[in-house]
Write a structure and sequence with these properties.
Layout lengths: L10 E4 L15 H6 L1 H7 L3 E4 L3 E2 L11 E5 L6 H13 L3 E6 L9 H8 L11 E3 L8 E2 L7 E3 L8 E4 L14 H17 L3 E4 L23 E2 L10 H16 L2 E4 L9 H5 L7 E4 L11 H4 L5 H12 L5 E2 L9 H4 L8 H13 L3 E5 L20 H12 L4 H11 L36 H6 L4 H13 L4 H6 L1 E5 L6 E8 L2 E8 L5 E4 L4 E6 L5 E3 L2 E4 L4 E6 L1
Parallel strand pairs: 1-2, 1-15, 2-5, 5-10, 7-11, 10-12, 12-13, 13-14, 14-15
Antiparallel strand pairs: 3-4, 6-9, 8-9, 16-17, 17-18, 18-23, 19-22, 20-23, 21-22
Helix pairs in contact: 5-6, 11-15, 12-13
Length: 553
């Protein structure tokens, strides 16, 4: 395996609005991030991906960018950003920005100029079409409703513009070389400032099916998900290769694509030896429990399904491994069966994520076991997608209570509540009123309390990360092969990692029931999440959610 600089690292995602507020306005900011860099360094973090902080109207929490070369005032200034990059470098840490170039904000200068002259230079920066037999078609946006909206000021002319996300996020026309040149200038500008690379948002969406054909409706609204057209588009590789050669490769940038590749057929194309990205996020194990329709969205977690999907994809590439992020509910609430939340189940989940093959990502608060929150009404939700999920459930005939329960369990706002730093007012996140309410369990689950307790989830994560990156085992976990083991045991998550002359066996009983397992190979215990490991001859007696790593003889 090619030994890229980032493969021995551990990464962490910050959702800046909810990370740390420094000025009491209730919104996390860049000075707040800087104040916590030593905490992250002490956790063992090397790479920090920060969700968008560009200037934005915040219709979609910063994923609607109105100026790619400016920091939104709610987060600070460009001077703050430059200082953050410098302070991270002092600690041998690397900053990744979020690259959002499938679409921009309708407040961006480009779109405003397109409104002024729909058939001029900037009109061609977007997909602006006159009403016809094909336009508008029946594609549904990611946030509900048609992907087509009337162009403001041109309603009488029947001019429509395309947006695969919110109507305030017009899609950029990547078919136009001038658009691509603008994007490359922006990307190189940030890389020249000293960031290490990008997480690349919705990048698979940049290529459209320009036939604008209709698809079979998949909901009572008569529309079809716009993602259907992605299956029929060809030629995206030309755009991605150009982006790589013009921007990423000259800077040796770390690039992580938000790419959904359920079959795995294109993994080599995306992240192989000559792939477009360094790696891509691995959402496949979460997706079965987050399906589009309410009926499957409330599916009970099945550890065997989850484990088997992970094993299938581990063979295909070196992924960025996650159990939660800003677009998913908390892993501790979805990937741990209801009623099983404990130190042992949370550390079992963390151990699996950190010791698989790939680049491990933690999401803010994961290291202390933060959980989902319960909202009492739809008015408390901020997320646009949550409101569409609720509407979908009601349209399918579910009651208000059922729809609200579904959104509470699977809504994105679960991951966007403020980080729980202490048991003081507002969890130590702000001295003011937080933009999003704090999870009431912050008095029990918080950094300050866990700092003091040797046996806390936080201190376990520190030991786990140190183990992964240790001089003795660092190369093995970064570059070693992974082979699944004991797959006939439905609740056993086991695999070997091997590199050169080293070989370890990872064992986890991902269940609330004890499990006795006859071992095929023997070894010395080198890492655990329980204080004592029990053997009976050649068998190991695994307690609920027990993790044991053996160095094999």
């Amino acid at each position: 395996m090619k030994k890229d600089w980032w493969k021995k690292k551990v990464a962490y995602q910050i959702y800046p609005k909810s990370f740390q507020d420094s000025n009491g306005d209730g919104i996390g900011d860049i000075p707040g991030i800087i104040s916590r860099l030593d905490y992250l360094k002490g956790l063992g973090i090397d790479i920090i991906w920060i969700s968008p902080m560009y200037q934005s109207p915040m219709v979609d929490q910063g994923y609607d960018v109105s100026d790619y070369r400016a920091i939104d005032p709610c987060f600070g200034t460009m001077e703050d950003m430059i200082r953050l990059i410098a302070e991270a470098k002092k600690r041998d840490m690397h900053i990744l920005m979020d690259l959002v170039v499938n679409h921009c904000s309708d407040q961006h200068e480009w779109f405003q100029k397109a409104i002024e002259d729909p058939f001029g230079k900037y009109g061609r920066y977007f997909y602006i079409e006159k009403k016809s037999d094909l336009i508008p078609n029946n594609w549904r946006s990611e946030f509900g409703g048609s992907v087509w909206d009337l162009l403001p000021g041109h309603e009488a002319e029947d001019l429509y513009y395309l947006h695969t996300f919110a109507k305030e996020q017009p899609d950029l026309n990547w078919e136009n070389p001038e658009v691509r040149e603008e994007i490359y200038d922006i990307v190189n500008w940030w890389l020249d400032l000293g960031i290490a690379g990008f997480r690349i948002d919705a990048i698979i969406n940049i290529k459209k099916n320009l036939s604008w054909e209709n698809y079979p409706a998949d909901r009572p609204d008569g529309l079809a998900s716009a993602s259907k057209m992605l299956e029929q588009t060809e030629g995206i590789g030309e755009f991605l290769q150009e982006l790589k050669m013009r921007c990423f490769e000259p800077h040796q940038a770390l690039t992580i694509g938000e790419v959904f590749d359920p079959t795995g057929e294109r993994t080599e194309e995306f992240i192989g030896e000559n792939g477009y990205f360094s790696t891509m996020f691995f959402f496949d194990p979460i997706i079965p429990f987050l399906k589009e329709s309410l009926k499957t969205r409330i599916q009970t977690f099945d550890p065997k399904i989850w484990r088997d999907i992970i094993f299938q994809k581990q063979k295909k590439g070196f992924f960025a491994n996650v159990v939660e992020n800003h677009d998913q509910p908390r892993g501790a609430s979805v990937l741990i069966p209801e009623g099983d939340y404990s130190f042992y189940s949370v550390t079992a989940l963390g151990s699996i994520n950190l010791l698989l093959r790939g680049l491990p990502f933690l999401y803010q608060g994961q290291e202390i076991g933060m959980t989902n929150i319960t909202f009492d009404s739809m008015e408390e939700f901020d997320d646009t997608a949550a409101k569409d999920q609720y509407k979908e459930a009601v349209d399918l005939g579910y009651s208000h209570e059922e729809a609200l329960a579904s959104v509470n369990r699977y809504g994105r706002d679960n991951a966007r509540t403020p980080v729980q730093w202490s048991d003081h007012d507002q969890a130590g996140f702000t001295t003011g009123t937080p933009w999003q309410k704090v999870n009431p369990n912050y008095r029990e689950i918080n950094v300050e309390n866990q700092e003091k307790e040797y046996g806390s989830i936080l201190n376990f994560y520190r030991r786990l990360i140190a183990f992964r990156k240790s001089e003795e085992y660092g190369d093995l976990f970064a570059y070693g092969d992974l082979v699944p083991k004991y797959e006939s045991e439905d609740t056993i998550f086991a695999f070997t990692r091997s590199h050169q002359n080293q070989k370890v066996l990872f064992l986890c009983n991902y269940s609330h029931d004890p499990k006795k397992l006859e071992l095929e190979e023997q070894g010395n215990v080198i890492f655990v999440n329980y204080p004592q490991t029990t053997f009976e001859g050649k068998a190991i007696c695994l307690k609920p959610y027990e993790v044991v790593v053996l160095e094999l003889f």
